[in-house]
Design goal:
By secondary structure, the chain is an alpha+beta fold. A hairpin with a 5-residue loop joins strand 22 and strand 23.
């Protein structure tokens, strides 16, 4: 059998609760109204406070903190508007102030120097003008009294525009930093540490630079410098915000190279030269107009030249006679002076293949006839040896030389020097040992001497 539900007690409880809620609602609506302020920047609410002064204090507190951090700058807050509202709701000022601190951006009173799309910020107009002047003077060298350079014009590739601005304080630069930033396009230089096996060209390739750019960035090294492991190199790719254009006139003293006048002489052998007048360089004063971009010459024009001293030409007589490599068949005495110390034939129980001519050490040895050198060098017992093929069946051999002054393949004239007398190889004293061959057969040199 189902139990009977008792509705009467529940209804009584409900009737007792309704008056309580009605009383609470009536009590809240009777709370006193207070004025609160919605704080806005550019129409966007950043917090709600009970008093305007709370916001002003918060702003001043933040400005004071920034002034301590950046004592050289002044600051101003953005324009703040207040929207009043009468409400019975309570406002938590502490939470609102914290929120305002986070959202409120206080900027420095500064000026920007605009170079087209690029800009840099400094403290004031005075600093801005200093930046522009120092930027220009950066590429105008200090002239010495004796230097003959005249600066015609210094300009920037883009006209700078100076205007007041509100800037994040960390972006406001000193005059020195601003000049460096404009000139380089960066304040941080990229440094490469040399590793084992690296050379300039491979380092340049890593940073998309040329070797010439690396050298410009590091003036203390040369293209043939030996890099050391651990050495630091500047590899910063500079991209100036603006180019400094300098136009100047410079006077320079330059040499005028002398000319060489060659007079042919058919009596002298080809390759022989005789100087009849020495040359001397002249001098001239040249006036140039130079155009430089960021210190580098991009245009150089000659305005005027004045001759100070005319050059003196060098006059030489050049032989045109073609030297024949074919001998005459008549042989000349092969030394300067000297005497026969041993003849061809048997001596000391052995056959002596040539003729010995004794003389003083290092006296000249001469080619006995025209021909071509087929050997010039060391050859065991012969010591320093020269062999000349006379292109007519004859061949001469010169041995025990102190020095050799010809080389293989060289054409020599009869009587020309081929070396000096010595005692090299298997030799008992200073002398020339000379052998003569006719069609490969050893013959007596003295029988063919004319």
């Amino acid at each position: 059998m189902l139990k009977k539900i008792h509705f009467v007690p529940i209804a009584i409880v409900f009737l007792l609760i309704i008056p309580f809620f009605s009383f609470a609602k009536a009590d809240k609506s009777n709370l006193p109204l207070k004025t609160v302020y919605h704080v806005k920047i550019n129409g966007k609410e950043i917090g709600t406070v009970s008093e305007k002064e709370i916001v002003e204090e918060a702003i001043q507190q933040k400005i004071t903190q920034l002034e301590k951090q950046y004592p050289q700058l002044t600051f101003s807050a953005p324009k703040i508007t207040y929207e009043a509202e009468r409400t019975s709701h309570l406002v938590a000022d502490d939470a609102s102030v914290k929120q305002i601190h986070e959202r409120l951006k206080i900027k420095a009173n500064a000026v920007t120097i605009m170079f087209g799309e690029h800009s840099v910020a400094v403290k004031n107009k005075t600093d801005a003008n200093k930046v522009i002047e120092q930027l220009k003077s950066k590429y105008v060298p200090s002239l010495q009294p004796k230097e003959q350079t005249n600066i015609l014009d210094v300009s920037l590739s883009t006209k700078p525009v100076i205007k007041e601005a509100k800037v994040e304080p960390e972006n406001v630069l000193s005059v020195e930093d601003a000049v460096n930033y404009v000139a380089k396009g960066t304040l941080e230089e990229q440094i490469h540490t040399v590793r084992e096996g690296e050379v300039l060209s491979t380092i340049a390739k890593q940073y998309n630079l040329t070797t010439e750019q690396i050298l410009l960035l590091n003036p203390d090294i040369k293209v043939d410098s030996l890099l050391q492991i651990g050495q630091k190199l500047n590899v910063t790719v500079y991209q100036p915000l603006v180019d400094v254009i300098v136009k100047e006139q410079a006077r320079q003293i330059e040499e005028i190279p002398y000319e060489i006048e060659a007079i042919p002489n058919e009596k002298m052998y080809k390759g022989d030269i005789k100087v009849t007048q020495e040359g001397k360089n002249g001098q001239k004063e040249v006036l140039y107009q130079l155009t430089k971009k960021n210190g580098q010459i991009v245009k150089k024009e000659v305005i005027n030249e004045t001759i100070i001293e005319e050059p003196v030409k060098k006059i030489v007589i050049k032989g045109t006679k073609v030297l024949s490599s074919r001998g005459t068949g008549r042989f000349a005495w092969p030394t300067v002076g000297g005497y026969i110390s041993s003849r061809m034939g048997y001596r000391w129980g052995e056959f002596h293949k040539g003729t010995d001519i004794a003389g003083s050490s290092s006296s000249p040895i001469l080619a006995a006839d025209n021909g071509t050198v087929t050997f010039a060098g060391w050859d065991g017992d012969y010591g320093n040896k020269v062999v000349i093929n006379h292109r007519n069946g004859f061949k001469t051999v010169y041995a025990h030389m102190n020095s050799i002054t010809v080389k293989r393949g060289q054409t020599v004239a009869k009587g020309s020097k081929i070396g000096t007398m010595g005692s090299t190889g298997e030799s008992t004293g200073t002398h020339l040992h000379i052998e003569l061959y006719n069609n490969g057969k050893l013959v007596n040199f003295l029988q063919y001497l004319r």
